[in-house]
Specification:
Strand order of the largest sheet: 7-6-3-4-5-2-1-8
Radius of gyration: 30 Å
Largest sheet: 8 strands, antiparallel
Distance between the termini: 94 Å
Number of helices: 2
Length: 170
Amino acid sequence: MSTTLTDRKDARWYRQGWPWFLIALPAIAVIAGIATLVIAIRSWDGLVVDDYYKEGNAIVQTIERTTHARELGLSALVQVRSERLRVQLMARDRKDLPSGLIVTISHPTRTGLDQVLTFSGTDGVYEGDMKTLAAGRWLFQLEDESRVWRMNGAAYLPTETEIRMDPSSS
């Protein structure tokens, strides 16, 4: 008994493996593209630098301000406690300690998490409230109110809760 093509049972296409395999490849690419688009929209980090010349001038001024902090013999101890920040500023001459301090806390990659805080204090101790910082690396910048000098430091939170800043050691 021989079988002809007309005698065979016709299997439907959707019961075969190959059409599904061929459909799956472009479908996976479309799904991956949509997922990439969603991630890109939700985590846009913005423009890195708009004007390189101005940025270069700002770097020169930053170096001069750090040098001035070194000349004044400034150093600081910054203590981070959940929603509170304490800065103890030391100087070679106590008259160089400002009455107000600007503290900038910034995340290296997420500008939306940055905080600029202004504290007043006496005898070099400045204390105040801040928003809770997420785990990860954070950059701390201390400046006087007239922005004549500045010091920088970094910490990995929550393990490093004390940051020592000493521009004479850098």
